[in-house]
Amino acid sequence: MQHVRLPHRKGGALLALLLALFSVTSVTSAAAAPPGPQRTGTPDGPVVTTDHGPVRGRAHGTYATYEGIPYAAPPTGDLRWRPPHPARPWQGVRDAGAPGPQCLQLPMAGTGGPTGSEDCLYLNVTTPAGRAPHRGRPVMVWVHGGGFIGGAGSDYRTGRLAERGDSVVVTVNYRLGALGFFGHRELGDAPAFGLADQQAALRWVQANAARFGGDPHNVTLFGESAGAMSTCAQLTSPTAAGLFHKAVLQSGSCTTAFPRGALVPGTPASEFFAPEETVQKAGAAAAAKLGCPEGSGALACLRGLSAEKLVTPELSQTFSRPVYGNALLPTAPDRALATGRFHKVPVVQGTTSDEMRLFTGLNLKQYPLRNAQDYRARLADSFGAAAAAVEAEYPLAKYPSPALAWSALLTDTTFTCTSLRADRALAGHVPTYAYEFADRGAPAVMGVPEVPGFPFGAAHAFELPYLFSPFPVQRPLDEAQVALSDRMIDYWTRFAHAGDPNGPGAPHWAAFRDRAPLALSLAPGAHGIRPVDIGAEHHCAFWDRQQG
Fold it and tell me: Whole-model pTM?
C-alpha cells in the first residue's frame, strides 16, 4: 500500500488528523496542561552525576525530576541528517529543573510557523523518593506519539507512575518530520534518524540508569501511537539488541495499516513504514523543489537551509514514516514479526475500543456522514467491490448513526484486528498480554471539540490520562475512573518489574492464547476489568477473510 498523499487543498486537514492520530496531546500544548508538581522546586535540589557531568533536579516529596538532560549532541549544521553523536561533557552542576526544547514541529491547528528547536535531543528522568533497592528499580522509557511529526517527552507528567509503581521513568524527545525521517540518495542507506535518536536515548539509559537508582538490566520500552510504532520498530531492529527487556505498545502495532479513505475521503491506503527507495525518491523531489537538485551537492545545499524551511505541511506529511532497508531496520516490521525476527522480550499490547471515533469526529464538519447515502459512498470509496459485504457486516440499523457505524468498522480493521494479528505472531515466541481500554465515559482531552450527537467514547489516546497525571483533560477523572487508573498503573509497572502484570488484589490478566477470551477489558466499575473476546466483538474473522 502507498503512503497517504493528498492534493494540496486537503493538506491542512490531513496534517491535523495525522497529529491527532498519533498523539491526542498534540491537540493542546504542554503549556495548556494544569500546573503540576514537576514544574516547582528550588535550586538546592538533588544532584546526580551522569556519565557526562552532574545534574541538579527538583524534589517533589514522593518523587524527584531531572529534566532537559542532553543525551546526544545538537543535530544541527553538519550533524543534520546524521546518526546522533555523543553529547559534550560539561563542567560544574547543570541545572535540570526544566525540560529542553521540543523538536521542531508545526502547530496542531496548521496555522503559524514551526515551534521548538533543531537542538532538541533531551530527556527527562523521574525517580521515586527514598533509597532504591540493591538491584535497582525497573526503568520505563516512554516514546511519545505525534505521527512522527509532533509531540515531546515533556508533554507527559510521570510522577504518579514513578511513585506508585516504584519505577524510574524516562521520557524522550526525538527528531520529527523532515528533520527526523528524511531520505536521499546522497544519504545512502541511512536509518530513520528519529529511530536512531531513540536508540541513543536507550544507550544513555544503559550508561546512567544505575546512577538514578534504576536497573539497566530491566528496561521497559513503552509508547502510544507513533510511540507504539517506534516500539515495534525497536523490537525488530538488530541494533536495539540488549537496550530494553520488555515492551508495551499502546494503540499501534507492527501490522497497523489504514484502508483507503480512512482519514479523508479519497486518500490512498497507507502503511506506517516505508521502503528505502520510496523515501529516497521523495527526498530527491523535495530537494529539487527547495533549489537543491541532484548532482549539485544536494545534501550540502539542504544542510545550508534554515530548519524552518524544512518544517512545512508538505514536507511533514511526506516524511512521517520510518524507512526500512538499512542496518537499523533491515526489513518491514510486519514482515519481521511474521517471520519471528524480533527481540524475544515480554510484550503488553492493546488498543482502545473506539479508536477511530476521534478522527471521524474531528472530520465530521468537513466530511459529514449524515445518512445511508453518505455511508455507502464512503464504503464504496474505501472498499470498492467489497463495500456490500462490509455494509452487511456493519448494517446501519445496528448503530445510532452512520458516523458511529463508520467509526466502528474503521476501529476494527485499522487497529483492533491488526493488533490481534500481531498478538498471535508475538505469542508464538514470547509472553504476550493483550488489553482493550474500554471506558466509554473517559474525559476528552483539552482541545478536542464537542460534536453534537457524536460521543467520542474510548477514543484514540483517551487512556493516557489514566497513566499520566495531571493530564490536560476537559474534566477530572471520577472516583471509579481514578480506581481504574490505579489498576492500570499497577498492571503497567508490575509488568515493568517482572514481565508479568499480575499482582495481589487485582483481577487476573491471563497471557494471550489464540482462543477466547483474547484480551483484558479495562473499564471502571465492579466488573469493568474482565476478559473479553475482542476478536468476536470487533468482527476480526470478517476482516481476516477480507485480507486473505
Answer: 0.94
Is 306 in the active site?
no
End-to-end, the C-alpha distance of the chain in Å comes to 15
Out of 23, 26, 225, 419, which one is annotated catalytic? 225
How far apart CA 228 and CA 292 sit, in angstroms, is: 34
Cell triple for 457: 467514547
At 144-190, the pLDDT tens digits run 999 999 999 999 999 999 999 999 999 999 999 999 999 999 999 99
Angle at alpha carbon of residue 516, lines to 511 and 519, rounded to 5°: 45
Question: Any catalytic annotation for residue 460?
Answer: yes
Give CA–CA dist 453/434, Å, rounded.
Answer: 31
* Annotated catalytic residue, options 245, 460, 538, 539: 460
One-character DSSP codes across 299-327: HHHHHTS-GGGG-SHHHHHHT-S-EESSS
Marked catalytic residue, from 118, 355, 391, 463: 355
In terms of DSSP bridges, do strands 137-143 and 214-224 run parallel, antiparallel, or are they unpaired?
Answer: parallel
- Degrees to nearest 5, angle at CA 27 with 21 and 28: 150
134 among known catalytic residues: no
Residues 439-450 pLDDT 10s:
999 999 988 999
